[in-house]
Design a protein that fits this description.
The chain is an alpha/beta fold and 332 residues long. It has helices at 4-29, 33-45, 57-87, 89-105, 117-128, 143-148, 161-166, 182-195, 208-217, 225-238, 240-248, 276-279, 281-285, 321-331; strands at residues 110-113, 133-137, 153-155, 174-177, 200-204, 221-223, 258-264, 288-293, 299-301, 314-320. It folds into three domains: 4-87, Helix Hairpins (Orthogonal Bundle), CATH 1.10.287; 106-223, Rossmann fold (3-Layer(aba) Sandwich); 258-331, Alpha-Beta Plaits. 54% of the residues lie in helices and 14% in strands. Helix 1 runs antiparallel to helix 3, helix 2 (33-45) packs across helix 3 and helix 10 crosses helix 11 (240-248).
Length: 332
């Protein structure tokens, strides 16, 4: 397979031939640089234009060697370029460059580490909600699926400091670690927290011991997929109607009729200082306030209508997805 490095080498060899040719005419014939460059170009391109000036014997010998090396450089470049086109590497390189530019533009985004079964579900949900994100995956076999969905991704080790800097961890707002190995997730959480102390870190764990280690390493939230799956299966057996409602309300990914969203109460906003009844969330947006987290961290389930909302509080609201989007837009 023709490598990218071989293609670069062929380009460098061609440029070197032009530089040497120009320098040779300047030294041997004493020409101006522009005249020497022009003579080099028409010689290498074999267009058959007349010589700029009459060549000396030494200049003619130099021209013969220049034509020989120019032909070799051209053949080397064409072979490399043709190989890359035929093998799809040129398209891959151009795509990689475009991807790198897209990633460099990301700000306030989310980093997904690992594109396995869990990571893929996370990415699809972020895409559905139009959240900016980038994926880090070391397994090349997983990349075609990410490309099919036009996801931003890089290939590499998510626990590597340089890789995290490449995907803009200092500009990111959150990182989701879905690596299959608990030790990798712990190390990643520790590394990410050291690089960006304000980062929101959510990690996957397979055991309770790993959950404790992840919290100590700096993770804000830890999720055990097996526990969630087991709980859902038990509920589906014992309380099938409850599970159906949970799916309707998008508590279980995949449903789109209803949604649960967070609404931040900002200073000077429309909801600041109002009670839940005065905010008319139910009347105006046909939504239900199911929870309120105070700025202090205290979480209240099903708060009363007389509960006053202050800056820094967060409402947890249940309603139709499109209406919740309108609510978030009005309060932005």
């Amino acid at each position: 397979m023709i490598s990218e490095s071989k293609f670069r080498l062929s380009m460098a060899f061609g440029i070197l031939t032009i530089v040497v040719g120009t320098g040779g005419f300047v030294i041997i014939e004493g020409w101006e640089i522009l005249d020497a460059l022009y003579m080099t170009i028409i010689t290498l391109s074999t267009v058959g234009f007349k010589e700029m000036h009459t060549l000396s014997a030494g200049g003619r010998v130099f021209t013969i060697f220049l034509i020989f090396f120019g032909a070799f450089a051209a053949a080397f470049f064409i072979k490399s370029l043709a190989g890359m086109v035929l093998e799809g590497q040129l398209q891959a390189i151009l795509g990689k460059r475009k991807m790198e530019k897209n990633v460099q533009k990301l700000k306030n985004h989310i980093i997904i580490c690992g594109y396995g079964r869990v990571g893929r579900k996370v990415a699809l949900e972020f895409e559905r909600r139009e959240e900016p994100f980038v994926i880090i995956e070391r397994d090349h076999d997983m990349i075609p699926d990410a490309q099919k969905h036009h996801f931003n991704f890089v290939v590499g080790n998510a626990a590597d400091d340089d890789m995290l800097e490449q995907v803009g961890i200092s500009r990111a707002r959150a990182i989701v670690s879905t690596l299959p190995d608990d030790a990798d997730n712990v190390y990643l959480a520790l590394t990410a927290r050291q690089i960006n102390s304000a980062l929101f870190i959510i990690a996957r764990a397979e055991t309770n011991l790993a959950k404790k280690k992840l919290i100590r390493a700096g993770a804000d939230k830890v999720v055990c997929p097996h526990e969630l799956g087991g709980t859902q299966m038990a509920m589906a057996t014992l309380r099938p109607n409850v599970v159906d409602f949970m799916q309707l309300a998008s508590v279980v990914p995949g449903a789109e009729q209803l949604g649960i969203e967070e609404v931040s109460i900002r200073s000077g906003g429309d909801l600041t200082g109002k009670t839940i009844i005065e905010a008319a969330v139910k009347t105006k947006y046909d939504a239900i306030v199911i929870g309120l987290r105070k700025k202090s961290g205290e979480l209240t389930f099903n708060p009363s209508g007389e509960t006053k909302m202050n800056p820094g509080d967060i409402l947890v609201v249940l309603g139709e997805s499109d209406k919740l989007e309108n609510l978030a837009a009005d309060l932005a």
